[in-house]
Amino acid sequence: MVVALSLVAPIFPALLLLALLIDVARFARTLSTVRLTLFLLAFLIVENVGLALLFFTFVTTRAGTRARMARTFAIQRLYTAAHLNCVRAIFSLRFVIQDSELARAGPFVALVRHASLVDVLVPGAFIANVHKIELRYVLKKELLAEPCLDLAGHWIPNHFVSRSGEDTQRELDAIRALKTGIGANSGVLVFPEGTRFSARKREKLLTGPDAERAKTLKHLLPVRPGGTLALLDAEPECDLIFIGHHGLEGLSGLKDIWRGKLVGRTITVKFWREAPPHENKLAFVDACWKRLDDWLETFE
After folding, report:
1. pLDDT over 90 (residue 253)
2. 72: domain CATH number?
C-alpha cells in the first residue's frame, strides 16, 4: 500500500487526464473512469493512514490489552467511515436510513444482506460509527490480503472464515467464541448468505439441497445455517438485528462500477430487531429473512 501510493500520487494528474479522455471517448456521461481514478487515490490514502495509525498503536500499546483493543476498534470505525464517505462523495450516493436506533445498544448478533462490493461498509458506518458499537466480524479469509484488515482483524475479536469446507468444527468453535465477553457496547456481525447474491447463484441453489428454502426468496440467498446457528446457540443469549438494503444490487465487480451503474444511486438501509426463540431457531431466522425479502420486493 505504501509503495502503491508513492507510485500513484506523483502521476495522479496525468492519470486523471487519461481517465477523462477515456470517458470522453466512451461518451460516458457518468465520468465513471474519472470517478474510479479519484477513488483509487482516496482508497490508497485511507489505507496508508490506517496503517500509520495501527503502527502507532503497535508501538504505544501492549498486545492483548484492553488499551490496544479500544484503540483498534476506534481505528476500525474511522477506517470504515472514511472509505464509505469517499464512495458516497465520489459516486454521488444518497443514503436513507430506517430504524438504525434499534442498533443503539448491544449485545446483539447482526445478520446483513450481501449484494455488492460496497455493502460491507454499511454496518461499520451506520452501527459502529453512529452508536460507537464495537463490532466483531465474521469475514471471508481472502480479505486477509488487505493489510489493515489483517492487522486490525487479529488485534480485536474477529474470525476470517475459510470457505473450503475443511475444519468445519474448528470454524464453528471460533465463530461461537466471538460472543465471549460480549456486552452492552458490542455486537457480532455476519453475512449469513455466505456470498454476494446473484440471480445465477440463486438459480443454482434451486437444484440443490436448499431448493425449498431458496424458492421462497427472490432477492436473497437462503441463510447458511452453520455459522448463524453457532452464534445463536452460543452464550450469552442476545437479540438479533436484521439489516437489509436496497440500491446496491448488480455491483458484484469493478466492471459494473466502471459502466457507471453505481453513480447517483439512492441506497435505503432498513433495520429490524428481534428476540430469538429457544426452539426452531433456523425456522425463525428463515421467517425473518423472508420478511427482509418481502421488503425488497416493495422496491420492484
Report:
1. no
2. 3.40.1130
